[in-house]
Design a protein that fits this description.
- By secondary structure, this protein is an alpha+beta fold.
- The chain contains four helices and four strands.
Length: 127
């Protein structure tokens, strides 16, 4: 998916090599639950993102600017009974989608989150 400045695509296991600035920066992860993810678990995290795509048909998109990873955005599906987005797919009446994003600190302040989230919302409406 393309926007004016960004490319959004499904993650692959090759993305393990580029997610470090997102998952290890204390300022970034402060907004993602607060825990830094050491490099040895990055493949597991990408695997969970891929599982969401397999289970829900949606999940995080990798966001790139000029071929460089700048963040992720996409749709999480929360289970309203437990307010978690991990675990088995909840029944439709308990599934609550949410658009979310996280960007490497160097990309903050450029409007990428707004641009990418709008693209995801348009994609969701059309798909």
């Amino acid at each position: 998916m393309q926007t004016e400045r960004l490319t959004l695509r499904r993650p692959t296991l090759d993305d393990v090599a580029v997610v470090g600035p997102l998952l290890t920066d204390p300022e970034v992860v402060h907004f993602l639950g607060g825990e830094i993810a050491p490099p040895e678990v990055h493949a597991e995290i990408i695997g969970k993102w891929l599982e969401r795509w397999d289970e829900y048909g949606t999940g995080p998109f990798m966001v790139e600017r000029d071929g460089e990873f700048v963040g992720r955005t996409g749709i999480l599906v929360w289970d309203l009974r437990t307010w978690t987005h991990r675990g088995p797919k909840p029944p439709e009446e308990f599934a609550q989608p949410e658009v979310g994003w996280a960007f490497v600190r160097a990309a903050w302040g450029n409007g990428y989150a707004t641009e990418a989230a709008r693209a995801v919302i348009d994609w969701a409406r059309n798909e």
